[in-house]
Amino acid sequence: MTRRLAEVAKKVxxxxxxxxxxxxxxxxxxxxxxxxxxxxxxVLGYERPTQLRGDRARLVGLVLPELxxxxxxxxxxxxxxxxxxxxxxxxxxTRTVGGVSEADYVDLLLQQQVSGVVFAGGFYSQADAxxxxxxxxxxxxxxxxxxxxxxxxxGFPQVSSDDHVAAEMAIGHLRTLGxxxxxxxxxxxxxxxxxxxxxxxxxxxGDPKLVEHTMFSLEGGHAAATRLVxxxxxxxxxxxxxxxxxxxxxVRRAGLDVPKDVSVIGYDDSAMMNCTDPPLxxxxxxxxAMGRAAVEMLMALxxxxxxxxxxxxxxxxxxxxxxxxxxxx
Length: 329
Description:
Rossmann fold, 6-stranded mixed β-sheet, transcription regulation, Lambda_DNA-bd_dom_sf, 434 Repressor (Amino-terminal Domain), 11 helices, LacI family transcriptional regulator, 3 domains, alpha/beta
């Protein structure tokens, strides 16, 4: 704080006491000096105090990887509603292939002097992805909360669904139905939530040869499940509902039936999964509770309260529908 006062005072050509009065909203400073101090804060890369940001202080960035996966629009609705109840407006930022990157959005949000950021499904969950823009957020001390598992070194508060428990629920359900040859379709190898699901699978003595890594897409699920079906699995656990829908398509194209020949389980319980053919058995992420918790954490950070950086884990729920059935003898 002392260093900041000294740098701003030197930049503007006023005393540190004058800078302190501006930052604390005290009287006795001319409007021209006040504006000069605030401009110097921006030029030097310091964050303006919340009470001095004007209308822009009521903005919160919500950064999502995509909107095609229905879980992300659903999460955006939860977070946006919770923010509105606190008097804030969410600024939705969605990555596009060949378009605006996550790092570009971070630069934009900093320029807009948002009060905070909520990330869901960002590059923080991939060990091999670029993370420099998160370090920039830390340097600027911008209140930030991450949703779902992140790499270890970032140090932001996290709200996550328990991936270990999710995998155990799905595998346990299939084993209860008599399935012994169970495969998994996971995200990329550096994807932290997928790694956690894989650890649970291996801890339950699953066969590592029956694990496929792919991109989170219908096509990725189809390709990965095609290989698992050829390997003779009778049950497939997927790391997302979109992957599970691709797996169902792969089973059918192999001339088999879901669930009579191969049972399939998804993850998320996205919208309309009870309307698919067959309705999808899946592990539900508690996005309502997670979204509200993320906003509560963010509000505490904005108000400069101490918030633990420990990961807050939420229990998922197995939702049994018609895409799973007893294994054929």
